[in-house]
Amino acid sequence: MTTFDSFSLAWRTVKSNKLRTSITVAIIAFGIMALIGIITAIEAMNQSLKESFSSMGANAFSIRYKETNVRMGGGGRNGDFGKTKRGKKEKKSNLGKPIRKEDAEYFKAGFAYPGAITTIYRRGPGAQEIHYQEKKTNPQIVLWGGDENYLQVNGYTIAQGRNLNGLDIQSGRNVCLIGANVATKLFGDKPEKSIEKIIRIGSVPYRVIGLLKTKGSSAMLRQDDMIFTSYTNLRRFANSTPSYLLGVMVGNVKELDVASGEATSVFRSVRKLHPVDEDNFVIEKSDKFAELFIGFLSSITGSAGAIGLITLIGAAIGLMNIMLVAVNERTKEVGLIKAIGGK
Q1: 207, 174 in Cβ contact below 8 A?
Q2: pLDDT digit string (tens) for 103-144?
Q3: Average pLDDT, whole number, for the chain?
Q4: Can you say how many angstroms the Cα of residue 181 is from the centroid of all Cα atoms in its chain?
Q5: Residue-wise pLDDT tens digits, 11-37
Q6: Pairing state of beta strands 198-201 and 117-123?
Q7: Rounded Cα distance, 30 and 243, in Å
Q8: For 190-225, what is the HEC assignment?
Q9: Is the pLDDT score of 78 beyond 50?
Q10: What is the rounded CA–CA span in Å between residue 311 and residue 34?
């Protein structure tokens, strides 16, 4: 048989077994499509997560109070103290001690690392419903209070309007900046009209002085569903003694360890800790969160890859069964051709 005869016979076989041909093509197509789809979805999740954390600022760290750890067993004579791994005393009465407004302001004034930008902020009550005339948002808006540096440290950009100024913070007046999703829900396709409008957070009126650019959302972060006001104004929403947070952004990620070390020293002084006392606050770096979640995503990627491989193997087994049947039939055809004198 010539090459042309071989292709001609193959084409006739394909035409005479349309169902088998269709199933074979479908197995190959769906197997490859499933694998590519899983890989694409994982890559999209990975990219979204990286963008979310890069927008938070990899060259920043935050300071928060240290929660009380519940420990079993007695404390011996020094029942008010516990020994840490580094041998320092951890005074239980200091644990869970909120960072007061005065502490935060004292740290901001005293932390003088070159090129560092410090912000004071805290989260208000979640699940807020925002009203403008007859329109309202879903009850999922988060209220944040901060100072003039909060937006820069946390990667927000003002699309229109202005930032908080010293008078806004000092007086604690009812002014705010709104996230992109809030503006869209209240002002439709003309969010720029939100500037200088009066909205209501619950029953409290606020004047909008700024509109934030969109930062996007992920499964864990909804960064555009927020309203930002001064931390001095946010005190009206506190039902108990609030704990403030401090954020510090340095010029280069390589300076993060040195700057956080100096911040630890300054804040220990603010908290009036003795040299033998353990820190009663925690410094959290953005890059550590990124490493944690990217590592978690790598585990998901491996699992999804294994599932995709199993899917492909299943498709290959189905294809092998079809090819085995085809080979058996072809063997019979070859035997018949040879029996009648063919070559």
Answers
A1: yes
A2: 999 999 999 999 999 999 998 877 788 999 889 988 888 899
A3: 80
A4: 17
A5: 777 777 777 778 777 877 877 787 788
A6: unpaired
A7: 54
A8: CHHHHCCCEEEECCEEEEEEEEECCCCECCCCECCC
A9: no
A10: 7
Token digits of residue 294: 């990217």
DSSP bridge pairs for 82: 90
For residue 323, CA distances in Å to 25, 28, 32, 314, 318 come to: 12, 12, 18, 14, 9
Q: How far apart are CA 98 and CA 71, in angstroms?
A: 20
DSSP state of 113: -
Whether 272 contacts 102, CB under 8 Å: no
For 56, counting Cβ atoms within 10 Å of its Cβ (0-12 exposed, 13-18 middle, 19+ buried), the class is: buried
Q: Which residue has the tokens 């519940």?
A: 70
* Helix and strand numbers, DSSP H then E, in the chain: 8, 14
d(CA 273, CA 65): 14
CA nearest 112: which of 263, 271, 273, 249?
A: 263
Q: Report the C-alpha gap between 164 and 38 in whole angstroms.
A: 45
* Token couple for 287: 């890059």
Question: 3-state secondary structure string, 220-265?
Answer: CCECCCEEEEECCCHHHHCCCCCCCEEEEECCCHHHHHHHHHHHHH
Query: Residue 193 carries which side chain, given as an amino acid letter?
Result: K
Q: Where are the beta strands (DSSP E) in 31-129?
A: 60-65, 81-83, 89-91, 117-123
- The gap from C-alpha 80 to its chain's centroid, in whole angstroms, comes to 38
State the chain's maximal CA–CA distance in angstroms.
105
Helix/strand/coil for 342: coil
Q: Is the CB of residue 68 less than 8 Å from the CB of residue 82?
A: no
The share of the chain scoring above pLDDT 90, in percent, equals 31
Smallest CA-to-CA distance from 56 within 160, 151, 127 is with 151
Residue with tokens 């294809």: 319
